[in-house]
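We close this part of the discussion by returning to an individual protein. Part of our work consisted of pairing the sequence of a single chain with a tokenised description of its backbone. What the numbers capture is local backbone geometry rather than side-chain detail. The amino acid sequence and the backbone structure tokens for this protein are reproduced below.
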Amino acid sequence: MTVIDLQVLGPAFIAGLLVLATHVPLGTIVLERGIIFIDIALAQVAATGVVFGGLMWGEVSGWIIQASAIVAALACSVMLVWTDKRFPEMQEAIIGVLYVTAAAVQLMMLSVNPAGSEYLKQLLIGQILWVSPMQLAGIALVYAGVLALWHFRDLRRERMIFYGVFAVVITISVQIVGVLLVFASLIVPALAARAAAGRWRILIALNVGVAGYFLGLVASALFNLPTGAAIVCALVMMAIIVGLALSRQKPAEEAQLPPEAVPGE
């Protein structure tokens, strides 16, 4: 790689590390609660807020568009808290309906934009290669606050805080890495580490994520591939390798235990 490549890929890799720092812990909560598609639904709602802000105010101010996306995601989170309390058995179905509705509204708004197809592509796969040091500093500050909340509060039980934090994180991430990579960063590493012992899950998931981002960025630079798509594929590849290794290790460990100590017996 050339010096120019490293100047581009370095900030992109740091952005990936920041995304993983918040998405992996939140992803483990999402898996435990069984609301798998909440992340992609909220990402789609945030992306729709971005499109709406751009359609209404153009390029007047990036902060206005950012506010539009955050308001859309937070309003969606409030609704999901309400439905989670009253219709918990239908929450996953409601999240799915929310996703397709947001996608449909987004497509209708983009249909009046001459550059709508290119804008849609950016929303799906992100612009991680073009992240600036100033953006990284702002993201790091917000994500530090999110990690503090995750550490000091029980987000598994406090639904309102969980959904609010989730909305803010997704809104920021979707504008950097895109809808597809937001979903992959939340679910794929956490899913890969699901078979690991509880104390190791987050560490293993983080390592899967870091390896996936690194390999995806390198592959995109070497073979001129779309960066977001390359990272998604690398994450899935690493998750399969680690998941298979963990699934083989667990039966071997159980075989060494006395019969009364084997889980489920």
